[in-house]
Amino acid sequence: MNAYLLAGGRSRRMGRSKLDIPFGGSTFLRIVAVAAGPVFDAVMAVQRADGAAVADVKTIFETPHDEAAPIFGVERALQDARGKCFVLAVDYPLLTSGVLRYLRDRFEVSDARMLVPIWRKRAQMLCAGYSRDLLPLIRARIDGRRFDLRGLIEEAGAEIIDEKDLRTRFDGEPLINVNTPEELEEAETLYARS
Predict the structure, then answer these.
(1) For strand 114-119 and strand 127-131, is the pairing parallel, antiparallel, or unpaired?
(2) Were 117 and a residue from 72, 87, 112, 161 both cysteine, which residue would form a disulfide, CB within 3.0 to 4.6 Å?
(3) What Cα–Cα distance (Å) separates residue 174 from each residue in 6, 43, 93, 120, 128?
(4) Is the pTM value of this prediction over 0.90?
(5) Number of domains in the chain
(6) CA Rg, the chain, in Å?
(7) Which domain, by its residues, includes 99?
(8) What CATH number did the domain enclosing 173 receive?
(9) At what angle do helices 135-143 and 71-80 cross, to 10 degrees?
(10) Cα torsion at 20, 22, 25, 31 (round to 10°)?
(11) Mean pLDDT, rounded, for 95-113
(12) Is residue 19 a contact partner of residue 57, using CB atoms and an 8 Å limit?
């Protein structure tokens, strides 16, 4: 099972690219890549069609489009995947290999076409497992200009990993998703305390 790191986000709420945000002596991208490395068969970046290849990570590119939405990166990942894969945003700076291994193992034995963890009462669509056979649903959503990935949960019959289950297994905030300067500040405070 491969992991695909979505590297082409516009980062509007953060105000700058998240790829190279410094964090804990590393960067957002490196932290997620290092966490995924020992867990998956391969780790690849998915970049916009007009984006630059990611240094030291095999990079595949989305087909050109005018919209800004992660669904296009998921589509490209599924085109490349052989079967089940994992899609990751780079804005999980406290993510660990242990969490990813647990999620991968659950997805590997699941009959579901999608596996989605819940964290802070939100479905983490960009730290989730996707099956290649979801491509028709993804394309239908794109054609219908329905870019929100959360709509796939019901359509795909996703297996949901309950937040309570995750919190009993893992300490801290490994699935905190950082999209704003305020969330970055919170993540830095959590990191400093760990």
Answers:
(1) antiparallel
(2) 161
(3) 18, 19, 8, 11, 14
(4) yes
(5) 1
(6) 16
(7) 2-193
(8) 3.90.550.10
(9) 150
(10) -50
(11) 98
(12) no
